[in-house]
Specification:
The structure holds two protein chains of two kinds.
Chain A: H1 3-27, H2 36-40
Chain B: E1 18-20, E2 23-25, H1 28-39, H2 45-48, H3 69-75, E3 76-80, E4 83-89, H4 96-103, H5 105-108, E5 112-118, E6 123-128, H6 135-144, H7 153-157, H8 166-190, H9 195-219, H10 221-232, H11 239-259, H12 266-283, E7 303-310, E8 313-320, E9 329-332, E10 342-346, E11 349-352, E12 363-365, E13 370-371, E14 376-377, E15 382-386, H13 394-397, H14 408-411, H15 415-441, H16 443-456, H17 460-479, E16 482-484, H18 488-495, E17 498-501, H19 503-507, E18 514-519, H20 524-536, H21 540-548, E19 559-563, E20 567-572, E21 575-580, H22 582-586, H23 598-602, E22 605-610, E23 613-621, H24 628-635, E24 640-644, H25 652-658, E25 664-666, H26 671-683, E26 688-692, H27 698-703, E27 706-711, E28 723-726, H28 733-766, H29 772-802
Parallel strand pairs in B: 17-24, 17-26, 24-25, 26-27, 27-28
Antiparallel strand pairs in B: 1-2, 3-4, 4-6, 5-6, 7-8, 7-9, 9-15, 10-13, 10-15, 11-12, 11-14, 16-28, 18-23, 19-20, 20-21, 21-22, 22-23
Helix pairs in contact in B: 8-9, 8-12, 9-11, 9-12, 10-11, 11-12, 11-16, 12-17, 12-29, 15-16, 16-28, 17-28, 17-29, 18-28, 28-29
Classes of the chains: A mainly alpha, B alpha+beta.
């Protein structure tokens, strides 16, 4: 059963990795603007012309 | 006539549409933007949203100051070689099309390397090369496509505030520890005296201990600090029992694992801190695109045009306003702001002081007259001589009053803190009484019971009731366009018994759509030509007047001359009209005696003469806001209402008719008088709400218990305040009051609910049976049910507001 020491160590290390990742992402400012990226990802990379079906207008959204 | 809306900005095409590439535009500005975007393959802009654009309005020479190296240096965030970074606040950002076009700026000009929009803050960050594109050209490019950045004196200060993310860190640490401790403590909840568990429980316990260290000493430190501060100033705030609970939890748990007598309460400890911080986080709803801390700096321009003579020649230069010294000559153009107290040297000044003094009508000033800072010139160019530097003007000195440095919210005793005093005494006495009881009965258990009472009675649920109720309400208010600074404002609002209103801009609308004609009636031909002439003019008054006139038959003038700041001279066939200011029309008029009284001339009006015969004038009145009368009548029931105006008392009689009896009115109040007036009311133990709009109310807004600013456009300047209300929701003020006091009763009910949980927990604690698992269930359960109850209750309240 001494494998449990090993498992404990691994679980703590995995948890710490995610924790550090969270801290780093906050520090980099990823949580400062949580709205704009959600809109940005919907833009098409290249313009698609003569194909109005695909360019469906995005719903009008406003920030709260 | 069928309504045609502009393809670019969606406004109605008042002058008849300008057609271009099968699309209609309301003005050439909109058409130009479309042309620019279309020719750069950026017409995807119009696929994202319908009519997303903003009609561009640029004044000639407005951005000349961006050539001054000192100003450029202050504005740039980063400047090295051919790489420059600048951030602008662009109030026009409003939809996803805006994000798209601004992030594709590099397609419009290849000197732009990248650009990124922060939508909630309405900010654009551009990285560009100033070798190929100067800052001024960049700003003009933005302005040309309708995204004019807002550059004010505030930018010049250049203090970039770091974002405070400590709460997120603390929350992250607490959440991380909470989850891990829960896992580690789970085995010991149910299994007692199990072989393998006995082997490993020590390492589990010490791991939990080490996870709890950052929770207590980092995440929870604010509670200790706040409790200490409270105790030092003799206040038993809610953080005192919380800090006591955390400390006791930690000490007892540590003692238990050292002496090997139990598992400790590390799970409850980290859960408690996590939930408390969650409440704090929820309460922190910020409207990042609004600022509640503004002073004159965000209203004043960053630079002015100074004239100086060099070898006999007069030259103009752009200088930062702080550089202006006494005696400097400065040029103020149409629509520009006078940044310092000055004397008029040249030109016809017509100054709009409505924002500064509350006077509704622009005032005329003659050569040699004194002009005060904050006025806006309307009309032609004037030349003034500075009397004082900017910081010492009459207006800016208002900000040296102590109310502006005082923190309002710290003095306010919140409901939670009021109850925490009794609560702390109650809990401490229960703890001592039960400890004394057990001392006699079974001394070994006394310490156990004493700490158990303090642990279980830790007012987590009570501390969560107010943040979640008020935080929810803050969001509901936000949906109805009342943006409040923080949650204490709601509690303050519930206590208000006196409401003071400013007049100009607050209970009157800034739109001058109430136009009356006085004089000899115009003939049909005159009316037709009048409409035709006004259509061709871009003066704001012409536009406003054109909008209200009939447009059935319009005759286009054959001769059309516009004299800036004076009026129009037009003719068609044998009819000639002069339209404009009194002085302009009065010249060459045969029947000058027909002219109205001198005081009439002071009002905003457009005079008309036809074939050198004076006809009459259109006078523009500020109209009172919709629902004014019904709002006042519903408020008058339980609150005292006062009108405090910087304007003269010309409207007194009219107001007395509209408003309920008992409304007190005071006129000719200067900014300092308003502040003093509010102070006097507060000395009579009144809780005062000030509703205002301009710089002249700034002192009163800061002094009042709750200062609300009415704003026609929430993106433009408003003085420091506790809340900003969209002018269209003016009639809802009464509902906001009702909702605030209902929120207070929701909080009171949740106090009762959480006290019930505390009583159950105390039952366990006093009888000496508090198992860690009971605490670990009871504490989250009480917190979650409080959160659920308050959220449900506020949502129901919010629904009622809609109906």
């Amino acid at each position: 059963m001494s494998i449990i020491y090993m498992l404990l160590a691994i679980s703590v290390v995995v948890a710490l990795i995610f924790f550090v990742a969270f801290i780093v992402s906050v520090k980099e400012g990823q949580y400062d603007d949580v709205y704009t990226p959600s809109v940005r990802m919907l833009f098409d990379d290249e313009l698609i012309k003569n194909d109005p079906e695909k360019n469906q207008p995005v719903n009008k959204e406003k920030s709260n | 006539m069928e309504k045609i809306n502009c393809f670019h900005c969606g406004e109605e095409c008042v002058d008849g549409p300008i057609n271009y590439s099968e699309k209609s535009f309301c003005c050439t500005g909109c058409k130009t933007v479309f042309e620019i975007l279309n020719s750069n393959d950026l017409s995807y802009y119009y696929d994202l949203e319908k009519a997303p654009g903003i009609s561009p309005k640029i004044r000639e020479g407005k951005y000349d100051f961006l050539e001054n190296p000192e100003i450029i240096e202050k504005l740039l965030e980063f400047d090295h070689g051919d790489s420059q970074i600048v951030s602008f606040v662009i109030p026009a950002i409003h939809c996803s099309s805006c994000i798209w076009i601004l992030e594709n700026l590099k397609k419009l000009h290849n000197a732009v390397k990248s650009s990124q929009v922060d939508f909630p803050k309405k900010k654009l960050r551009i990285s560009f090369s100033s070798k190929d594109l100067s800052l001024k050209e960049l700003v003009l490019l933005l302005a040309r496509i309708g995204y004019e950045p807002n550059i004010s004196l505030e930018n010049f200060e250049g203090e970039k505030k770091g974002i405070d993310r400590s709460l997120i860190y603390k929350l992250g640490v607490a959440g991380f520890a909470f989850g891990n401790i829960m896992f580690l403590s789970f085995p010991e909840y149910f299994e007692i005296n199990e072989f393998w568990l006995d082997q490993f429980k020590h390492i589990f316990r010490w791991l939990m201990f080490s996870f709890s260290l950052p929770v207590v000493f980092y995440s929870g430190k604010d509670y200790f600090i706040s409790a200490y501060k409270g105790l030092r100033s003799g206040i038993l705030n809610i953080d005192v029992p919380i800090a006591l609970g955390i400390a006791v939890l930690f000490l007892r748990s540590t003692a238990e694992i050292i002496t090997d007598t139990g598992t400790g309460f590390f799970d409850s400890l980290s859960g408690l801190v996590f939930f408390l911080l969650l409440g704090k986080f929820f309460q922190q709803k910020t409207y990042s695109f609004l600022s509640f801390e503004r002073d004159y700096k965000s209203y004043f321009p960053i630079a002015v045009t100074r004239i100086f003579s060099e070898t006999g020649q007069q030259k103009e230069e752009q200088v930062p306003v702080y550089k202006i010294q006494k005696g400097d000559r400065v040029i103020i153009r149409n629509e520009e702001l006078i940044p310092m107290d000055a004397i008029l040297i040249k030109g016809d000044a017509k100054i709009d002081y409505s924002f500064v003094t509350g006077e509704a009508e622009p005032v005329k000033r003659k050569r040699g007259d004194r002009l005060y800072a904050g006025g806006r010139q309307q009309g032609s160019i004037i030349e003034v001589e500075a009397l004082k530097p900017v910081q010492q003007s009459y207006l800016t000195e208002l900000w040296s009053d102590e109310v502006f440095s005082k923190d309002k919210s710290s003095a306010f005793q919140t409901l939670t803190n009021q109850i925490s005093k009794r609560f702390t005494f109650g809990v401490l006495s229960i703890a001592f009484i039960s400890a004394i009881f057990w001392m006699y009965y079974e001394p070994a258990k006394a310490w156990n019971v004493f700490t158990a009472v303090l642990i279980i009675a830790c007012p987590c649920a009570i501390a969560l009731a107010a943040p979640f109720t008020l935080g929810n309400l803050l969001r509901i208010f936000g949906r109805y366009h009342l943006y409040l600074k923080d949650t204490t404002v709601i509690e303050q609002t519930a206590k208000i018994d006196t409401v003071v209103f400013d007049k100009t801009g607050t209970i009157t609308s800034n739109k001058r759509d109430n136009i009356k004609y006085e004089g000899i009636e115009l003939t049909e031909e005159e009316k037709e030509l009048l409409s035709g002439s006004l259509r061709a003019s871009n003066h704001p008054l012409s536009r406003a007047l054109y909008r209200v006139l009939q447009k059935n038959n319009i005759s286009t003038p054959e001769v059309f001359n516009e004299y800036v700041g004076q009026g129009l001279e037009t003719s068609s066939k044998d009819l000639s009209l002069k339209i404009g200011s009194a002085a302009f029309v009065k010249k060459n008029v045969a029947n000058a005696s027909f002219f109205a009284q001198p005081e009439e001339l002071e009002k905003t009006s457009v005079h008309i003469s036809s074939n050198e015969q004076y006809k009459g004038c259109f006078t523009f009145h500020n109209s009172y806001r919709e629902h004014l009368s019904s709002l006042f009548n519903s408020l008058a029931g339980d609150k005292e209402l006062i009108i405090l105006s910087g304007d003269n008392d010309g409207e007194r009689e009219k107001l007395e008719q509209i408003l309920p009896r008992g409304t007190r009115m005071f006129f000719n109040q200067r900014p300092g008088d308003k502040l003093q007036f509010i102070k006097d009311l507060q000395n009579q133990n009144r809780k005062v709400m000030m509703v205002g709009d301009g710089l002249n109310d700034a002192g009163a807004l800061a002094q009042s218990d709750v200062g609300i600013v009415i704003s026609e456009d929430i993106n433009v300047f408003s003085p420091a305040c506790d809340g900003i209300l969209d002018a269209r929701k003016f009639g809802k003020i009464h509902d906001f009051f009702g909702l605030s006091s209902k929120a207070i009763s929701v909080i009171k009910w949740s106090f009762i609910l959480s006290l019930c949980y505390n009583l159950i927990g105390l039952g366990f604690a006093v009888s000496g049976n508090l198992m860690p698992v009971v605490a670990a269930i009871l504490m989250p359960l009480s917190s979650i049910s409080i959160v659920g109850f308050t959220t449900l209750a506020t949502q129901i309240l919010g629904k009622r507001l809609k109906n």
